[in-house]
Write a structure and sequence with these properties.
76% of the residues lie in helices and 1% in strands. It has 281 residues and is mainly alpha-helical. A hairpin with a 4-residue loop joins β1 and β2. α3 packs parallel to α6, α5 packs across α6 and α6 packs across α8.
Length: 281
Protein backbone atom coordinates (compact mmCIF):
# COMPACT_ATOMS: atom_id res chain seq x y z
CA UNK A 1 0.00 0.00 0.00
CA UNK A 2 2.78 2.40 0.88
CA UNK A 3 4.56 1.53 -2.35
CA UNK A 4 1.43 2.27 -4.40
CA UNK A 5 0.91 5.55 -2.57
CA UNK A 6 4.54 6.55 -3.19
CA UNK A 7 4.18 5.70 -6.87
CA UNK A 8 1.05 7.81 -7.23
CA UNK A 9 2.69 10.68 -5.38
CA UNK A 10 5.72 10.47 -7.67
CA UNK A 11 3.54 10.49 -10.80
CA UNK A 12 1.58 13.44 -9.45
CA UNK A 13 4.75 15.41 -8.80
CA UNK A 14 6.06 14.64 -12.31
CA UNK A 15 2.75 15.76 -13.82
CA UNK A 16 2.86 18.97 -11.79
CA UNK A 17 6.43 19.70 -12.91
CA UNK A 18 5.44 19.04 -16.54
CA UNK A 19 2.53 21.46 -16.22
CA UNK A 20 4.75 24.14 -14.69
CA UNK A 21 7.06 23.71 -17.67
CA UNK A 22 4.50 23.55 -20.46
CA UNK A 23 1.95 26.13 -19.32
CA UNK A 24 4.35 29.15 -19.35
CA UNK A 25 5.55 28.17 -22.84
CA UNK A 26 1.98 27.91 -24.12
CA UNK A 27 1.14 31.23 -22.44
CA UNK A 28 4.04 33.01 -24.14
CA UNK A 29 3.10 31.48 -27.50
CA UNK A 30 -0.55 32.49 -27.05
CA UNK A 31 0.50 36.04 -26.13
CA UNK A 32 2.68 36.33 -29.25
CA UNK A 33 -0.18 35.04 -31.40
CA UNK A 34 -2.62 37.53 -29.87
CA UNK A 35 -0.23 40.45 -30.39
CA UNK A 36 1.18 39.41 -33.76
CA UNK A 37 -1.79 37.94 -35.61
CA UNK A 38 -3.26 41.37 -36.56
CA UNK A 39 -0.05 42.14 -38.49
CA UNK A 40 -0.10 38.92 -40.53
CA UNK A 41 -1.32 39.50 -44.06
CA UNK A 42 -0.27 38.64 -47.59
CA UNK A 43 1.33 42.06 -47.95
CA UNK A 44 3.27 41.58 -44.71
CA UNK A 45 4.64 38.23 -45.90
CA UNK A 46 5.29 39.06 -49.55
CA UNK A 47 6.42 42.71 -49.73
CA UNK A 48 9.59 44.64 -48.94
CA UNK A 49 9.92 46.94 -45.91
CA UNK A 50 9.73 50.69 -46.40
CA UNK A 51 9.31 53.90 -44.42
CA UNK A 52 12.33 53.04 -42.27
CA UNK A 53 10.98 49.47 -41.77
CA UNK A 54 7.91 50.89 -40.00
CA UNK A 55 5.67 49.71 -42.84
CA UNK A 56 5.62 47.10 -45.57
CA UNK A 57 6.56 43.47 -45.20
CA UNK A 58 9.37 41.16 -44.19
CA UNK A 59 9.90 39.14 -47.37
CA UNK A 60 13.70 39.69 -47.50
CA UNK A 61 14.04 38.49 -43.90
CA UNK A 62 11.95 35.36 -44.56
CA UNK A 63 13.87 34.45 -47.71
CA UNK A 64 17.19 35.21 -46.02
CA UNK A 65 16.36 32.96 -43.06
CA UNK A 66 15.40 30.16 -45.45
CA UNK A 67 18.65 30.55 -47.40
CA UNK A 68 20.73 30.59 -44.21
CA UNK A 69 19.03 27.45 -42.88
CA UNK A 70 19.43 25.69 -46.22
CA UNK A 71 23.08 26.70 -46.47
CA UNK A 72 23.71 25.51 -42.92
CA UNK A 73 22.14 22.14 -43.73
CA UNK A 74 24.21 21.75 -46.91
CA UNK A 75 27.48 22.23 -45.03
CA UNK A 76 26.76 20.72 -41.61
CA UNK A 77 24.55 17.67 -42.20
CA UNK A 78 26.86 15.62 -44.49
CA UNK A 79 29.95 16.48 -42.46
CA UNK A 80 28.22 15.90 -39.11
CA UNK A 81 26.73 12.54 -40.09
CA UNK A 82 30.05 11.42 -41.64
CA UNK A 83 31.91 12.33 -38.44
CA UNK A 84 29.32 10.44 -36.37
CA UNK A 85 29.69 7.36 -38.58
CA UNK A 86 33.44 7.43 -38.14
CA UNK A 87 33.25 7.80 -34.36
CA UNK A 88 30.53 5.17 -33.93
CA UNK A 89 31.55 2.57 -36.50
CA UNK A 90 35.22 2.93 -37.39
CA UNK A 91 37.16 4.67 -34.63
CA UNK A 92 38.67 2.43 -31.95
CA UNK A 93 38.20 3.39 -28.33
CA UNK A 94 41.31 5.28 -27.22
CA UNK A 95 42.33 8.44 -25.43
CA UNK A 96 42.16 10.27 -28.76
CA UNK A 97 38.52 9.39 -29.48
CA UNK A 98 37.58 10.21 -25.88
CA UNK A 99 39.32 13.56 -26.27
CA UNK A 100 37.44 14.21 -29.52
CA UNK A 101 34.09 13.47 -27.87
CA UNK A 102 34.91 15.77 -24.95
CA UNK A 103 35.86 18.51 -27.43
CA UNK A 104 32.57 18.05 -29.30
CA UNK A 105 30.59 18.34 -26.06
CA UNK A 106 32.52 21.47 -25.08
CA UNK A 107 32.00 23.04 -28.50
CA UNK A 108 28.24 22.61 -28.10
CA UNK A 109 28.36 24.84 -25.01
CA UNK A 110 30.34 27.74 -26.49
CA UNK A 111 28.29 30.98 -26.71
CA UNK A 112 27.10 31.81 -30.19
CA UNK A 113 28.79 35.23 -30.13
CA UNK A 114 32.17 33.44 -29.99
CA UNK A 115 31.26 31.54 -33.15
CA UNK A 116 30.31 34.85 -34.72
CA UNK A 117 33.70 36.38 -33.95
CA UNK A 118 35.43 33.24 -35.24
CA UNK A 119 33.44 33.40 -38.48
CA UNK A 120 34.24 37.10 -38.80
CA UNK A 121 37.96 36.44 -38.55
CA UNK A 122 38.10 33.29 -40.69
CA UNK A 123 35.45 33.61 -43.39
CA UNK A 124 34.91 37.37 -43.67
CA UNK A 125 38.51 38.62 -43.37
CA UNK A 126 40.96 35.73 -43.87
CA UNK A 127 39.14 33.87 -46.67
CA UNK A 128 37.68 37.16 -47.96
CA UNK A 129 34.14 35.91 -48.43
CA UNK A 130 32.95 39.22 -47.05
CA UNK A 131 29.69 39.79 -45.20
CA UNK A 132 27.66 37.24 -47.12
CA UNK A 133 25.32 34.29 -47.06
CA UNK A 134 28.32 32.01 -47.51
CA UNK A 135 30.16 33.36 -44.47
CA UNK A 136 27.05 33.22 -42.30
CA UNK A 137 26.12 29.70 -43.44
CA UNK A 138 29.62 28.38 -42.77
CA UNK A 139 29.67 30.00 -39.33
CA UNK A 140 26.26 28.54 -38.44
CA UNK A 141 27.41 25.16 -39.75
CA UNK A 142 30.37 25.10 -37.37
CA UNK A 143 28.04 26.05 -34.52
CA UNK A 144 25.53 23.26 -35.28
CA UNK A 145 28.07 20.50 -35.97
CA UNK A 146 28.51 19.43 -32.31
CA UNK A 147 24.76 18.92 -31.87
CA UNK A 148 24.43 16.92 -35.08
CA UNK A 149 27.51 14.78 -34.40
CA UNK A 150 26.49 13.93 -30.83
CA UNK A 151 22.89 13.07 -31.71
CA UNK A 152 23.84 11.06 -34.81
CA UNK A 153 26.50 9.10 -32.97
CA UNK A 154 24.08 8.19 -30.17
CA UNK A 155 21.49 7.10 -32.75
CA UNK A 156 24.03 4.89 -34.53
CA UNK A 157 25.21 3.31 -31.28
CA UNK A 158 21.60 2.56 -30.32
CA UNK A 159 21.19 0.19 -33.29
CA UNK A 160 21.57 -3.39 -31.94
CA UNK A 161 24.93 -4.99 -32.66
CA UNK A 162 23.10 -8.11 -33.91
CA UNK A 163 22.11 -6.21 -37.07
CA UNK A 164 25.76 -5.67 -37.94
CA UNK A 165 26.73 -9.24 -37.09
CA UNK A 166 24.04 -10.78 -39.29
CA UNK A 167 24.85 -8.47 -42.21
CA UNK A 168 28.57 -9.21 -42.11
CA UNK A 169 27.95 -12.95 -41.70
CA UNK A 170 25.92 -12.88 -44.91
CA UNK A 171 28.86 -11.40 -46.82
CA UNK A 172 28.19 -7.69 -46.52
CA UNK A 173 31.11 -5.33 -46.14
CA UNK A 174 31.29 -2.89 -43.25
CA UNK A 175 30.26 0.04 -45.47
CA UNK A 176 27.36 -1.93 -46.99
CA UNK A 177 26.22 -2.80 -43.48
CA UNK A 178 26.36 0.85 -42.39
CA UNK A 179 24.68 2.19 -45.51
CA UNK A 180 21.91 -0.38 -45.91
CA UNK A 181 21.28 -1.54 -42.35
CA UNK A 182 22.59 0.81 -39.67
CA UNK A 183 21.80 4.21 -41.21
CA UNK A 184 18.13 3.44 -42.04
CA UNK A 185 17.59 2.11 -38.50
CA UNK A 186 19.28 5.15 -36.94
CA UNK A 187 17.49 7.67 -39.18
CA UNK A 188 14.90 8.86 -36.59
CA UNK A 189 17.61 9.83 -34.10
CA UNK A 190 19.75 11.43 -36.79
CA UNK A 191 16.82 13.53 -37.99
CA UNK A 192 16.18 14.68 -34.43
CA UNK A 193 19.77 15.89 -34.08
CA UNK A 194 19.72 17.60 -37.47
CA UNK A 195 16.50 19.49 -36.70
CA UNK A 196 17.76 20.55 -33.26
CA UNK A 197 20.90 21.96 -34.85
CA UNK A 198 19.08 23.70 -37.70
CA UNK A 199 16.49 25.18 -35.34
CA UNK A 200 19.27 26.73 -33.30
CA UNK A 201 20.83 28.09 -36.48
CA UNK A 202 17.52 29.55 -37.68
CA UNK A 203 16.99 31.47 -34.44
CA UNK A 204 20.52 32.77 -33.83
CA UNK A 205 21.36 36.46 -34.08
CA UNK A 206 24.98 36.89 -32.93
CA UNK A 207 26.73 34.74 -35.59
CA UNK A 208 24.92 36.31 -38.54
CA UNK A 209 25.30 39.79 -37.03
CA UNK A 210 29.07 39.54 -37.63
CA UNK A 211 29.11 37.52 -40.84
CA UNK A 212 26.11 37.97 -43.10
CA UNK A 213 23.09 39.92 -41.83
CA UNK A 214 22.21 43.36 -43.16
CA UNK A 215 20.42 46.07 -41.16
CA UNK A 216 18.19 46.98 -44.10
CA UNK A 217 18.36 45.44 -47.57
CA UNK A 218 15.30 46.07 -49.78
CA UNK A 219 16.19 43.29 -52.22
CA UNK A 220 16.73 39.56 -52.25
CA UNK A 221 20.23 38.02 -52.35
CA UNK A 222 21.25 36.86 -55.81
CA UNK A 223 24.40 34.89 -54.96
CA UNK A 224 26.09 33.25 -51.95
CA UNK A 225 28.41 36.26 -51.70
CA UNK A 226 25.53 38.71 -51.13
CA UNK A 227 24.50 39.91 -47.68
CA UNK A 228 20.96 39.20 -46.55
CA UNK A 229 18.33 40.13 -44.03
CA UNK A 230 17.22 37.46 -41.54
CA UNK A 231 14.27 37.16 -39.19
CA UNK A 232 16.21 36.98 -35.87
CA UNK A 233 18.38 40.00 -36.67
CA UNK A 234 15.46 41.89 -38.21
CA UNK A 235 13.45 41.30 -35.05
CA UNK A 236 16.33 42.57 -32.94
CA UNK A 237 16.69 45.69 -35.10
CA UNK A 238 13.02 46.67 -35.17
CA UNK A 239 12.71 46.03 -31.43
CA UNK A 240 15.75 48.05 -30.31
CA UNK A 241 17.01 50.33 -33.07
CA UNK A 242 13.94 51.74 -34.83
CA UNK A 243 11.98 54.40 -32.91
CA UNK A 244 8.18 54.49 -33.06
CA UNK A 245 8.02 50.98 -34.48
CA UNK A 246 4.43 49.60 -34.39
CA UNK A 247 4.21 46.85 -31.80
CA UNK A 248 2.17 44.67 -34.19
CA UNK A 249 5.08 44.45 -36.63
CA UNK A 250 7.45 43.35 -33.86
CA UNK A 251 5.15 40.60 -32.64
CA UNK A 252 4.17 39.68 -36.19
CA UNK A 253 7.85 39.13 -37.04
CA UNK A 254 8.29 37.02 -33.89
CA UNK A 255 5.23 34.98 -34.84
CA UNK A 256 6.60 34.31 -38.34
CA UNK A 257 9.93 33.20 -36.87
CA UNK A 258 8.25 30.85 -34.39
CA UNK A 259 6.03 29.46 -37.16
CA UNK A 260 9.13 28.87 -39.31
CA UNK A 261 10.79 26.87 -36.53
CA UNK A 262 7.60 24.95 -35.69
CA UNK A 263 7.18 24.13 -39.38
CA UNK A 264 10.64 22.57 -39.40
CA UNK A 265 9.64 20.57 -36.32
CA UNK A 266 6.45 19.37 -37.96
CA UNK A 267 8.25 18.20 -41.11
CA UNK A 268 10.88 16.43 -39.01
CA UNK A 269 8.18 14.76 -36.89
CA UNK A 270 6.44 13.37 -39.98
CA UNK A 271 9.70 12.04 -41.44
CA UNK A 272 10.78 10.60 -38.09
CA UNK A 273 7.41 8.87 -37.58
CA UNK A 274 7.59 7.22 -40.97
CA UNK A 275 11.16 6.11 -40.35
CA UNK A 276 10.22 4.63 -36.96
CA UNK A 277 7.31 2.75 -38.56
CA UNK A 278 9.78 1.03 -40.90
CA UNK A 279 12.27 0.29 -38.13
CA UNK A 280 12.69 -3.40 -37.34
CA UNK A 281 13.39 -3.19 -33.60
Amino acid sequence: MNRLLTQRLGFSLLTLVALFTVIPILAVFAYIIAKGAPAISWEFLSSFPHDGMRAGGILPAIVGTFYLTLGTAVFSVPLGVAAAIYLAEYAKESWLTRLIRIAIINLAGIPSVVYGLFGLGLFVFFLRFGTSLLSASLTLSIMTLPVIISAAEEALRAVPQAFRTVSISLGGTRWQTIRRIVLPQALPGIITGVILGLERAAGETAPILFTGAAFFLPRLPHSPLDATMALPYHLFVISTQVPEMPIQIQYGTALVLITFVLGMNLIATVIRSRARARRQW
